[in-house]
Amino acid sequence: MKYLPVSFIVFFVLISSSLISITHCADRKRNISKEEADDIKIQRQLKILNKKPVKTIITEFGDAIDCIDIYKQPAFDNPLLKGHKLKMSPSSIPRERTNKYVSSSTIFRGLQKERCPSGTVPIRRTTKKELLNAKYFTKKSKSIYANNNPNIGYHFVSAEEVVQGKRYFGAAASMSVHNLAVDPDQFSTSQIWIMNTTDQENNSIGFGIMKYPGVFGDSRTRLFGSWSVNGPQVHGCYNILCQGFVQVSFVMYLGQTFSHSSIYGQVSYDVYLKVSRDQEGNWWLSAGPSAGATENIGYWPNEIFTLLRSSASAVRYGGYVGATAQEATPPMGNGHFPQFGDYKKTAFMRVMKYTDKAGNLVNLDPHSVITTAPPQCYDIMFAGLVGNWEITMAYGGPGGICN
Ligand SMILES: *[C@@H]1O[C@H](CO)[C@@H](O)[C@H](O)[C@H]1NC(C)=O
Ligand SMILES: *[C@@H]1O[C@H](CO)[C@@H](O)[C@H](O)[C@H]1NC(C)=O
Ligand SMILES: *[C@@H]1O[C@H](CO)[C@@H](O)[C@H](O)[C@H]1NC(C)=O
Q: In angstroms, what is the C-alpha Rg of the chain?
């Protein structure tokens, strides 16, 4: 329970701060209604986020993917990135192998048949509905929080090394992908957090897989990344709901869907995800079918952070779920409690590693790992070394009415 605050903060920051930049344009000459004012804000924010595309690709699921001039992508509107020099690869991350064919040959459903023209990158277009929903979620979650019922609504399980004074430069794992039933009022994520926390301020990066119909308009399982800076200033958001993440891949992007999900008891699919800091302090997100075949999707630049400029004080692996109504919370993982008997029947993360100062991926030390879980509805089991799966854990749960 000791870790609860950070997760709450991360959530609120993520959803609310994408709207912060749009809250000062309402009062004009005319006395406009609240609805009109809100609409103007949303329209402005959309205009800022959705750049004029060179080309638009509609995916088979109906997502509009805009091909945006790589130098004109939304991130570069962030005042903190004035003068930032675009990097195309984290040249200083050792042993980085990128695989151009990752996205077309596997579980990742990036752009396949159609590609963006050269010099442009794919960016999933944000719809008005998504921004409105993000706003609605903020209001709803705030009111739940205000009702003195912080334990209703949001739950997480996590495993992390607890080593005083240790510094982390990244984190990675392969995580299983599942297709869960999630209501419009609920979200369910499997993720890795990279964070630095002081009494006055918190910074974090989160990445993993997410179902979030309320924000993304459907209940597909999607790749996500988030960042948050919470202290004197508050910034951050999921994916590209605000200006921060720099997209460099030509085929893979935040918000993209997966082509397979595990089937209970029959088959499990997992994806390898990693965030690692380069020597200039940018945090690179890469993904692929395995550790040996990854592609760089993009990075969160050093400049947008206050406490994650040099390193992180913790990396955490787990699941985070929530509901905006004071009702049932959604399933996590594959919707079943974790077990070690049959990994086809449990959600898991394996090859759990962190990046050390030299840029090498290192196994978590099983003896230093502690797990955290709420008393009901969800659980986490840390297995330690499991053959060539290396450091492994199982987690998840059915959700429901939890205390
Ligand atoms: C303008 O809005 C204010 C605050 O919402 C309200 O008190 C006032 O009556 C409105 N005036 C007109 C002319 O509608
Ligand atoms: C940062 O996290 C710590 C530890 O969870 C918490 O005590 C503190 O209130 C947070 N600070 C801010 C500014 O959110
Ligand atoms: C966390 O941030 C503080 C303040 O910037 C910094 O002094 C500290 O070194 C950071 N911790 C780590 C592990 O990087």
A: 20
